[in-house]
Amino acid sequence: MKKITLVLAFLAVSLGYGQQVLIEDFESGSALDGGFSGLASSSVVADPEAGGSRGQVARLEVVAGAGDPWQGANVNFTTNVDLTTDKTITMDIYSDTPIDILVKVDSGIDGAPPSAVDVQHPGGSVWVETIVSFTTPRDNTSENANGVYPLIAVFPNWDATTPPGSWFNPPVDAVVYLDNIRAVAAVASGPTCSDGMMNGNETGVDCGGPDCAPCAVPPSSAPPTPPSRAAADVISIYGDAYGTAIGLNNVPWDDPTNFVEEEIAGNNVLALTLGTFMGSSLGSVVDASGMTHIHMDFWVADGFVDGQVFNPKLSNHAESAGETNAIEGTIALPGDGTQNQTWVSYDVEIESLFDNDPNDDNAPFERANITEFLITTAGLIGTAYLDNVYLHNNVVLSNDDFSKISFKAFPNPTQDSWSLRGETQIESVRVIDILGKEILSLSPNSKEATIDGSSLKSGLYFAQVKSLSGLQSIKLIKQ
To answer: What is the rounded CA–CA span in Å between residue 118 and residue 108?
Structure first.
């Protein structure tokens, strides 16, 4: 690969060029903004040089007759640069044609002045290592760079030939590429736990080290496996343990909280990015009148800070008229950090939870129209994981129970009917919907039976199968 070096400042070595480090190589694709003043395009692309091996580089395109003469793009650094002593930034530039470029440091920290200088590329489809020395101000900037800066602005349409070289060309068709921006990295003078960068003595972005909160640690193992329960004794809100769950949906009124499903150790979990609280709407309204307990498994990825809570809430909406009452649990994370960065199982009687009725503090919690599930964090938890959220009757089946009761329904899901088959005679079958209402019943007195679901709406149902061996509940899914 042919390489040309343009030395634009003979003082580069004495100013500390050897101390420069790589600030941005565009491999993450996140530093370049969308451009300004009508720039045709600003993007991160593959190395344009024939046989090039640079990976990702920045591409800025100017189109004749479009946009302002001073169109350009910002490169936002993840690590601030210090131009107090060494006033140079080194970058690799590529262009097919000769071009003048204005480079400007702006948005200086603590009053560091803006400063702009020009550089030239000779063309020829080669990468040029260019030293940009902020010691000869251009473009109405009157001072040399001096201080700490978080970005540079790049203007590919500069005119350096018209004395005194202080204005822009009319837009022309031109493309310029940038890579491997290097400079002296700024050393933080104190804690920098909220500037969006990994600097100072941090071990992550705004986290770790002696001054900032510990960095988030995601789970590497799946949460505990829930016990075996009959289908009729469980209403699964989220999780794979008990078949098809009701499901949780993001809502706009808890911004900036959101959650997405991730796979951890072969198990699907919800990854929560939290604000003050998490809100969610259930996939369908739930009647939990017959359930006695609520369960969830959670992992707080942040290290412990004083006051962290992870409080679950079930919100009841009678007749879809907004929240009529709710119940809320209290989970205060212990100060020794034993419930941070580990799976915690929470299982509690519904009736023991705090009753929050906006109309009557003494009214019992109505559970026939549970519509929303919320988690309050007091704004002290940024990242958490959630799985196995369900309501249940606290009845666990033994292995013997399962060996005696072994009926199966197929096909499941179905668009029409289910066939039941087992080892013992079926006395009766009751099909109930998710609200607990009986939809149909039959008494086959046989080891096989057919449940006609052709008239049922799509959704989740339960078949309660009674035999001489006992009672088994099977989830039925109608497509």
So the answer is: 19
Do 136 and 242 lie in one domain? The reply is: no
Comparing CA positions, the residue from 131, 139, 130 lying closest to residue 106 is 139
- Dist. CA 463–CA 458, nearest whole Å: 15
Single out the residue of 190, 215, 217 nearest to residue 205, CA to CA.
215
pLDDT digits (tens, 9 = 90+) for 348-387: 888 777 666 555 555 556 788 899 999 999 889 999 999 9
- Give 109's DSSP letter: B
- DSSP β-ladder status, 370-376 and 408-410: unpaired
**Could you tell me the CATH number of the domain that includes residue 437?**
2.60.40.1930
How far apart (Å, rounded) are the C-alpha atoms in residues 423 and 330?
A: 46
* Residue range of the domain that includes 334: 231-392
| Domain shared by 313 and 253, yes or no | yes
Residue 190 has pLDDT above 70, yes or no: no
Return the CATH number at 292: 2.60.120.430
194 domain residue, yes or no: no
Q: Are residues 388 and 404 in the same domain?
A: no
For the chain, the first-to-last Cα distance in angstroms comes to 60
- Give CA–CA dist 261/389, Å, rounded: 14
Question: Do 15 and 148 lie in a common domain?
Answer: yes
Domain-embedded: residue 224: no
Give the C-alpha separation, 271 to 278, whole Å.
11
**Dihedral sign computed on CA atoms, order 347, 352, 358, 364:** positive
Torsion angle of the four alpha carbons 166, 149, 87, 1, in this order, in degrees rounded to the nearest 10: -80
CB atoms within 10 A of CB 459: 13
Are residue 18 and residue 99 in the same domain, yes or no?
Answer: yes
Identify whether 454 is part of a domain.
Answer: yes
Question: What are the helix and strand counts (H, E) for the chain?
Answer: 1, 31
Could you give the number of structural domains in the chain?
3
Residue written as token pair 């690969």: 1
195 in any annotated domain: no
How far from the centroid of its chain's Cα atoms is residue 215's Cα? Answer: 15
* Whole-number pLDDT of residue 403: 46
C-alpha triplet 439, 441, 445: angle, nearest 5°: 160
Q: What is the pTM of this model?
A: 0.49
